[in-house]
Amino acid sequence: MTDARRTDTRAQIREVALELFAERGYDGTSLREIAERLGISKAAVYYHYKTKEEIVGALFDDFLAGVDEIVEWAHEKGPGPETRAEVLRRYQDLLTGPSAAQVARLMQEGQSSLRDVAAAKDMKTRFFAMGRAVTAPDASAAEQLRMRLAVIALHLGAFMDQESLPVSDEERRTAALEVALELART
Amino acid sequence: MTDARRTDTRAQIREVALELFAERGYDGTSLREIAERLGISKAAVYYHYKTKEEIVGALFDDFLAGVDEIVEWAHEKGPGPETRAEVLRRYQDLLTGPSAAQVARLMQEGQSSLRDVAAAKDMKTRFFAMGRAVTAPDASAAEQLRMRLAVIALHLGAFMDQESLPVSDEERRTAALEVALELART
DNA sequence: GTCTATAGCTTGATAGAC
DNA sequence: GTCTATCAAGCTATAGAC
């Protein structure tokens, strides 16, 4: 196959953009930086994506579809502790995907800089839906908060850095799931 | 007292800046917006604060001092579940201060946009210190993660919006402390 | 202490050649 | 598909009048 080296620019743009967005934030990353790191010009980037927002939108899309699957499953199963536990396990699987951890990082700390990015609003909606699907309609504030924290626990397990929690990636993920499941028990 | 209306510009700048930073992020807020909302010029803002970073630094200072007090107390007491619980109670008290919740919001989602703001690094250091002070040196990853999540729980209790958790402010704070203390128990 | 004016730079995005 | 050149708009920050 002559196209072993076939990594088209479009994909490379997404790759580099995600890396920079996760690291320096959406606002903190310019198209110039993305282009520079790829050794192409800004205009070349604009050939592949009409706007900066379209890039981040593309980044969210796969992840969004994954969350949707989980929410759908949860809806069929109905609320309860077992549903919560299984949702969290599946969500951690989703986070284990190649670039999902970086997407999670971008989401987690980007509520302000992504405030007028349409895809980010969609994401927020999905997480609401996930919360509602796994807790009873009359759930207490503490119950709802626990589920939300469980999700954050998994996020931290996925992207927290060595400095903040000096253990192996594997160990960190395991601990995150453990704590998340504790939170989902009640 | 003729100076009942004495709220000097410097303080007003801090007030408005915090409001906007918390709402739209640090990068997402320009000095023009701050000046405009105060009915003064950008140059007037620069008279009071040399740089934008100095403003956010001033915002962090009071809060930082509050955290320092807590860390110092925790250090004297030594690690353990009771220390963790009391630290969290004191931290929530700190968060109940007039503008502390907004500072917390700014910190929470600003790791990327504040990446080269010196005061933010100081803050991160303090939170590390707090974690180390309340958990044993050989604490498991899960234990460390629980303490970190407990702090986040209090943050969410302080600034989460009505839409995300539709209960009263009082109820939300109470629930947050409840969950935080659960996390600190083990 | 606040203003106007402006320097100097970066940004997101476009036009048009190759 | 990528380039150079350019745009208008926005930014932080400064100079100097009042």
From TrEMBL, chains A, B:
Residues 30-49 bind DNA. Residues 7-67 form the HTH tetR-type domain. Coiled coil: none annotated. Keywords: DNA-binding, Transcription, Transcription regulation. The keyword Transcription applies. GO terms for molecular function: DNA-binding transcription factor activity; transcription cis-regulatory region binding. PROSITE patterns: HTH_TETR_2. It holds the Pfam family TetR_N. This is Regulatory protein TetR.
